[in-house]
Specification:
Layout lengths: L4 H13 L2 E6 L4 E4 L8 E10 L2 E8 L16 E6 L5 E6 L10 E4 L4 E4 L5 E7 L1 H6 L8 E7 L8
Parallel strand pairs: 4-6
Antiparallel strand pairs: 1-3, 1-5, 2-3, 3-4, 5-6, 7-8, 9-10
């Protein structure tokens, strides 16, 4: 039995729905132009931490309203990401779970003492622009790029 084009499209959409994850936005939303020759393919993207040491880079942020509303994709906010049929992750909306860093403490019940173990996860921070960092200029706090940090505060590079 052959399938129609409509049946294949429905099957593709059902398959893509299965690839749904929750994560935390790690960077400010930024414009990315996939067409380097012009502005015909500009999309808005963020980096998303989906846990287990996985950070998705340049996840396209889908407008929640169809009119460009993307305020749900701010650093530290919980989002849902979905893989489309082409294998690309897309940020589709807000989520009910958040993944950031955690500080774990072990409790020794024999003497009620607690000891810290290595921090876990990722968070985001801001790297101050070079001008403000070098000149101690007014406005240094907050002026910079959002970067992904590991639990020890080290920048995570692509």
């Amino acid at each position: 039995m052959s399938s129609t084009v409509t049946q294949r499209l429905i099957a593709r959409d059902l398959k893509s729905v299965r690839e749904l994850r929750r994560g935390t936005v790690m960077t400010d939303i930024r414009a990315l132009d996939f067409d380097q020759g012009g502005l015909t393919s500009t999309v808005f993207v963020v980096d998303v931490n989906i846990g287990a040491g996985n950070i998705l880079r340049d996840v396209i942020v889908k407008s929640a309203t169809g009119r460009g509303a993307r305020e749900f994709a701010q650093p530290g906010k919980a989002v849902e990401v979905q893989r489309n049929a082409g294998g690309r992750w897309i940020c589709i909306g807000a989520s009910d779970r958040i993944k950031l860093t955690a500080c774990v403490q072990e409790l020794d019940e024999s003497d009620d003492s607690a000891s810290a173990v290595a921090d876990e996860g990722f968070t985001y921070g801001r790297r101050v622009f070079t001008y403000y960092a070098d000149n101690n200029a007014w406005g240094a706090a907050g002026f910079g790029n959002a970067v992904v940090l590991d639990a020890q505060g080290n920048e995570v590079l692509s």
